[in-house]
Amino acid sequence: MALQLPKATQDLPVNHEINVVPFIDVMLVLLIIFMVAAPLATVSVPVDLPSSTAQPQPAPQDPLYLTLQKDLSLIVGEGEPVELKGLGGALNAVAEDKQQRILLRADKAVSYGDIMEVMNALSGAGYLKVALIGMEAGPQGATQ
Fold it and tell me: Which residues contact 63 (CB under 8 A, 6 or more apart)?
């Protein structure tokens, strides 16, 4: 197989076509990344969190969320609502051990006393590592 090159005196023809194959490859990889990452970034239990200006802390590897909604219903993880009296048993069923940090999300309409009742129930069940979750606030206190 031989390749015939033009003579040195002739100019090479100009190719005006753009190779879009690498661009399409990159776009398909980005599409796959976003399709995988989008469901992980959503929370299926809606709760209106209050804002905070505290410095954000890194999230644990496998967080265990406890959600207190404005109607005072408790939800462990993404499961079904549980009663305050049965909170210890529900946590024992899903938690690795009593040293696991519980991330408490409470609606901003819930009173401080109701949050303290939940925290007392957690303490009574042996879960002493409780972190409160809130929305990040901007410099003037507005939510981002």
Answer: 101, 103
> Which residues are CB-neighbours of 22 under 8 A, at least 6 positions away?
none
Residue 132 has phi, psi (to 5 degrees) of: -95, 135
Please work out, in degrees rounded to the nearest 5, the angle formed at the alpha carbon of residue 81 by the alpha carbons of 79 and 87: 95
- DSSP annotation string for 15-61: P-----HHHHHHHHHHHHHHHHHHHHT--SS---PPEE-SPPPPPPS
Helix (H) / strand (E) element for 75: namely: strand 74-76
Print pLDDT tens along the chain (144 aa).
666 766 666 677 777 888 899 999 999 999 999 888 887 776 667 777 777 777 777 766 778 889 999 898 899 888 888 998 888 888 888 888 888 888 898 888 999 899 999 999 999 999 888 888 877 766 555 444
pTM: 0.56
